[in-house]
Write a structure and sequence with these properties.
- Keywords: ATP-binding, Nucleotide-binding, Transport.
- The structure is a single chain.
- By secondary structure, the protein is α/β, with parallel strands linked by helices.
- The chain has a single domain (4-266), classed as P-loop containing nucleotide triphosphate hydrolases (Rossmann fold, 3-Layer(aba) Sandwich).
- 40% of the residues lie in helices and 22% in strands.
- The protein has 9 helices and 9 strands.
- It has helices at residues 45-52, 90-100, 105-118, 134-146, 164-181, 192-198, 226-229, 232-250, 254-266; strands at 4-14, 20-30, 34-38, 60-65, 75-78, 152-156, 184-188, 201-206, 211-217.
- Helix 2 (90-100) runs parallel beside helix 4 (134-146).
- The termini are far apart.
- 35% of the residues are buried.
- Mean pLDDT is 89; it is low at 256-267.
- The structure holds adenosine-5'-triphosphate.
- Residues 15, 17, 19, 21, 39, 41-47, 210 line the site of adenosine-5'-triphosphate.
Length: 267
């Protein structure tokens, strides 16, 4: 059995303007899990990631780290916007975290090339962000996270701004990498299909106040191919997440809603 890597216990977050972003959030993430957080806008998904990353403090509660984590390089964050330095080459953008950590240039260059290899961007070292497509810029952003060799990868809607085809390709590539490296991934998305395809666990949150309302294991084997995306099992999981999300947003079960509608029609 795998060990817990992050445990949130009774975490609440009230921003200075009084917004209760999270209330009594409890969640334990096991080493190597791929966990997606889904939920309506404003339910606190990004706040959870930021608290885990140590970007701002929580109001009450605690976040504990598993013993398997080493002190250095344990976390990397990928945001929705690639946030690259426009004046710097791909090589320099990806090297940034190592430069900030004071890694010697020769060793850093080697690590950068490895990271670019992982995201299939070898050959673009000297390109500038403006010369790349949206998908390629996101790959640079992922390489910049991976170059630090993280144990935990926090991803805040990384593919939200990309077209469907690019998103689907990056989903597959991310899964392949995850299977090889086995980081723990916490992935925020609005997209149910993406969450089910990628994750072995989908956590559904509700808003006002932000909290966990469902925790759904996606019990399907990896690697997950196109076959999985078109399978009845995949559809069943998407329907289940969708129903829980509907409850989170409207406070009623979608099944109940559908039953009420059909009863209404038959009258
Ligand atoms: N710095 C802040 N100051 C005040 N309120 C904030 C701040 N950041 C977030 N909030 C509020 O906290 C709540 C949760 O925000 P958060 O961004 O975590 O939600 P989210 O689920 O990630 O939303 P979305 O899906 O729209 O990105 C929202 O009501 C938001 O307005």
């Amino acid at each position: 059995m795998s060990a817990p890597v992050i445990t949130l216990s009774h975490v609440s977050k009230v921003y200075s303007n009084g917004t209760v972003a999270l209330q009594d959030m409890n969640m334990t993430i096991q080493t190597g899990q791929f966990v997606s957080l889904v939920g309506p806008s404003g339910c606190g998904k990004s706040t959870v990631l930021r608290l885990i990353a140590g970007l701002g403090g929580m109001t009450t509660g605690s976040i504990e780290w598993g013993q398997s984590l080493t002190e250095n390089h344990k976390l990397a964050f990928v945001f929705q916007e690639p946030a690259l330095m426009p004046w710097a080459t791909v090589m320099d953008n990806v090297r940034l975290p190592l430069k900030l950590a004071g890694e010697p240039k020769q060793k850093a260059d080697q690590d950068v090339l490895e990271a670019l290899q992982l995201v299939s961007l070898r050959g673009f070292e000297r390109s500038f962000p403006r010369e790349l497509s949206g998908g390629m810029r996101m790959r640079v952003s992922i390489a910049r996270a991976l170059v630090t060799k993280p144990q935990v990868l926090l991803m805040d809607e990384p593919f939200g701004a990309l077209d469907e085809i690019t998103r689907s390709r990056l989903n597959s590539d991310l899964l392949e990498l995850w299977q090889e490296k086995r980081w723990t991934v916490i992935f925020v998305t609005h997209n149910i299909y993406e969450a089910v395809y990628l994750s072995n666990r989908v956590v559904v949150m509700a808003a006002r106040p932000g909290r966990v309302v469902a925790d759904i294991p996606i019990d399907a084997p990896y690697p997950r191919s196109e076959e999985f995306r078109t399978s009845p099992l995949y559809n069943d999981y998407c329907r289940e997440v969708s129903a829980r999300l509907h409850e989170a947003m409207h406070g009623t079960s979608q099944d109940h809603h559908l039953r009420t509608l059909s009863v209404g029609r038959s009258r």
